[in-house]
Structure formats: C-alpha cells, structure tokens
TrEMBL record:
GO terms for molecular function: ligand-gated monoatomic ion channel activity. Belongs to the glutamate-gated ion channel (TC 1.A.10.1) family. It comes from Diploptera punctata (Pacific beetle cockroach). Keywords: Cell membrane, Glycoprotein, Membrane, Receptor, Transmembrane, Transmembrane helix. It holds the Pfam family Lig_chan. GO terms for biological process: detection of stimulus involved in sensory perception. This is Ionotropic glutamate receptor C-terminal domain-containing protein. The keyword Cell membrane applies. The chain crosses the membrane at residues 51-77, 89-109, 121-140, 307-331. Gene3D superfamilies: 1.10.287.70. The keyword Lipid biosynthesis does not apply. It is a multi-pass membrane protein. Its main location: membrane.
C-alpha cells in the first residue's frame, strides 16, 4: 500500500536498509530504538544456596583435610609420645575430632594441651580457625541480608545452556528475513498471539526469550506495574539493529521539511521526554498489579530464623540421643545386676 501510493505516511521503527531507502525518505528521528534479544533477568539467589556456595569446593575440601589432619596429629601426639606425654585428653580419636570441630566453631576444648609441640600445633590451628570463621561470619551476615543474583545471560550460547525456548509472533518471519536472524531457527519455538504477550512471558514466566524493541519492552514493563525495570527488562549484550523511530515518507513528499521543522523544535524543547514520562506514568496508574522488585533490606530477626531452626533441631537431637543413651545404660545396668545375681545363685548352689 505504501509503494502504490495508498499511504502517505508510514510510522514506527524503520530500519535503514535498501528496501526502504530506495523508495522512501527518513525525516528527523524522534528517538533511536534498538532491536535486541530480551531474556529473563537473573533472579535473587536463595540464602541457603548462597551460603553453601560461600566458599569454593576447593576451600571446603581443604578445610576438611585440615580438620582430619589436625585431629589425627592430636591423636598421634597423645598416644605415641616421643619422650613422655602428660596430655591424656585426646587418647580417643573421637575426642580429637570433637575438639578440632569445636575450635573450628569457636567453642573451647575440654582440656588444654601441656606439651610444647602439642601447644604449637594447637595455636597454629586456632589461628587458622579464627581466620576462616571471621571470613565466614562476615560473608554469612552479608548474604543473609542480600544473597545476590544469578548469572546474567549475555550471549546466545548462554541461552542455549539455559534451555530457553524462542518466543515467536506473527511478524517474526518478517523480522528474521529483514535482519537476517537465521541463528534463531535452531531453537524450539512457541507462537504467541501478540508481541506484548510474548514479551510479558519472557519477563515473568522466564521460560522463553524473544526479539523486541527496547522501548516496547520498557512500555510492557510499565503496563505490568513494574517499578524497577532493571530487575525485569534484560537483554543480551549484542544489539541486533539500531532503528530510528519516526515517520517514513515517499520520495519527494512535501511533508518532509514540515516534519523536520516540527520534530527539531520538539526535541530541542524537551517535549519528547515529557511526553514519554507522561505515557509511562499513566500506564503505571492503569496497571492491574504492581510487581515490586526488592532491593537491599535491613537486617532483622527474620534473617536469623534458619539459625534458630538449626539450633532447635540440635537441641531435639541432643535430647533424643541422651534419652537413648539413658535407656541403653539402664538396660546394661539391669543386665549386669541380673548376671551378678545369677553368679551368686550358682555359688550358693555349689
């Protein structure tokens, strides 16, 4: 219709490609838009997941090796003395592991070593545990308040590893042909009725990715009541195409100079920013629901609930173990008492 003269003006984001430049004129662009792949934004990591990954696997492994080696050395120094040993608190290997674990947690040991070599090993281990526990507590408190976010998707390879599906819409084939986006043909596709639904699914359902204009994604986020777009609207690093937004006129149109004059006055007077802010404000007021994206929060007792749950679980486990030990000890006492009575009975019979 544009080529046959049935349309005088074609408005929107128009790429500067041969298919348009040959037959049309571009007035001054109202703003510059970009075509990009929109992907799900990284979600906040769970506190438990972040605490587990506080240290790397190599660090956790080295800590375990230090614990085992130190406990073994304590046991060897107590049971295989070079000259004489006045340190009998760690004669059992279980006692050594318990003491080493206690020092790592910042708890006092039941008995201090006496010999010089054992004291030297003990003070080195205490310094090591003090450094590890200080670093752990500092990061632990920080991650309880703000655990951080997952890794941001930056390239199509990251999208492949994430297992996302391409969200397609009615003009996707046209977009792929104009911008030569043939690499997306390798992805499994899901067809949506309109582009807004497709973009909204990428933002909130987080199981697809799609190609869209940056300003349109921002508009859809405002339409959904999002207050912080940086937590919802995310794109891959590479921009697919830069698109000037404005009208497209047939060659030789007398409206070209008129549009250029008015557009320049509007841009220089800042009317575009005012109009765009008003649109977003009106859209947010009409939004059905507000999607609040939390930032940093104050540290309070709610963040300590997991610690109290672990403490309560430890108390319950300790009481249970004590109860079973008491029953076993009572059973052994009864068995011993019965055995002695039986022995006295045998002696009397003889």
């Amino acid at each position: 219709m544009f080529h046959t003269g049935q349309m005088d003006i074609l408005a929107g984001s128009m790429p500067c490609v041969d298919a348009f430049v040959t037959y049309a004129d571009f007035p001054v662009a109202i703003f510059i838009d970009t075509l990009e792949f929109i992907v799900p934004c990284p979600r906040p990591m769970t506190k438990t997941q972040k605490i587990i990954t506080l240290f790397s696997l190599a660090t956790w492994t080295s800590m375990m090796c230090v614990l085992i080696c130190t406990s073994s050395l304590f046991w060897l120094m107590s049971n295989i003395p070079v000259r004489k040993s006045n340190f009998t608190g760690f004669n059992l290997l279980a006692q050594c592991f318990s003491a080493a674990w206690s020092v790592l947690l910042g708890v006092s040991v039941p008995q201090m070593p006496f010999s010089l070599r054992t004291r030297c090993l003990f003070i080195i281990y205490v310094w090591y545990c003090f450094a590890i526990s200080t670093v752990f507590q500092a990061f632990f408190t920080s991650f309880l308040v703000e655990p951080g976010y997952e890794i941001q998707l930056k390239t199509l390879d990251d999208v492949v590893r994430a297992g996302l599906v391409l969200g397609s819409y009615d003009i996707m084939e046209f977009v792929k042909a104009v911008f030569e986006l043939y690499e997306v043909d390798y992805f499994e596709q899901t067809l949506y009725d309109d582009l807004a639904e497709c973009v909204r699914n990428v933002m909130f359902e987080r199981n697809t990715f799609s190609g869209t204009l940056a300003y349109f994604a921002s508009y859809v986020a405002s339409l959904s009541g999002v207050t912080d777009e940086s937590k919802i609207v995310c794109f891959l690093d590479d921009t697919l195409f830069t698109l000037p937004f404005g009208p497209l006129l047939p060659k030789g149109s007398p409206l070209l100079n008129v549009f250029n004059a008015h557009f320049r006055q509007c841009l220089e007077g800042g009317l575009l920013q005012v109009y765009w802010s008003k649109i977003k404000h009106d859209v947010k007021l009409k939004a059905d629901q507000m999607h609040e994206q939390g930032g940093y929060v104050a540290f309070n007792l709610n963040h300590l609930l997991p610690i109290f749950f672990v403490l309560i679980f430890g108390y319950i486990l300790s009481v249970t173990v004590f109860f079973f030990e008491f029953l076993i000890k009572l059973w052994e006492s009864k068995k011993c008492y019965t055995s002695r009575r039986f022995q006295r009975y045998i002696l009397r019979s003889k």
